[in-house]
Amino acid sequence: MENLFNAFTTPLLLSGIIFVIVSLLLLKFPPKEINSFYGYRTSTSMETQEQWDFAQRYSSIMMLKCGIGMILISLIGPFLTGVDAAVLSISAIVVLLIPVAILFYKTEKAIKNKFK
User: Fold this and answer.
1) Based on the number of CB atoms within 10 Å of its own CB, is 75 exposed (0-12), middle (13-18) or buried (19 or more)?
2) Is residue 4 within 8 Å of 78, Cβ to Cβ?
3) Which site from 17, 29, 57, 100 is most exposed, i.e. has the minimal number of CB atoms within 10 Å?
């Protein structure tokens, strides 16, 4: 039981849960107007209102998928016995950055493909 929540599982599980909650909130309450405070904000998404609306929905769905992915990946943490906590922490950070990069890459690509 002591290895259930280790330096790999905990950050990924918590980040995944946060991603899922935030994505569901953004799907239910998307920002209506272009702003610099709330929503998926990049120069591409903020060019037009149509791009903004598309980016909000698309990025929220991608965030939900990434959050679920992080939660699922966190489940391998308890099986990583005998691995140093520092290595687990660094691994968790690397694994956490991958879904974030995927989220931005896929959303930007989708915006550019839809609004050529």
Assistant:
1) exposed
2) yes
3) 29
Residue 87: how many other CB atoms lie within 10 Å: 12
pTM, rounded to two decimals: 0.91
Can you say how many angstroms the Cα of residue 31 is from the centroid of all Cα atoms in its chain? Answer: 18
With a CB cutoff of 8 Å and minimum separation 6, the contacts of 52 are: 31, 33, 34, 39, 45, 46
Q: What average pLDDT does range 35-59 have in this prediction? A: 96
Contact in structure between 92 and 11 (CB atoms under 8 Å): yes
b/e map of 41-57 (b: 16 or more CB within 10 Å)?
A: beebbbeeeebbbbbbe
- Domain limits, the chain: 9-114
The per-residue pLDDT for range 58-75, each reduced to its tens digit, is 999 999 999 999 999 999
Amino acid at 83: V
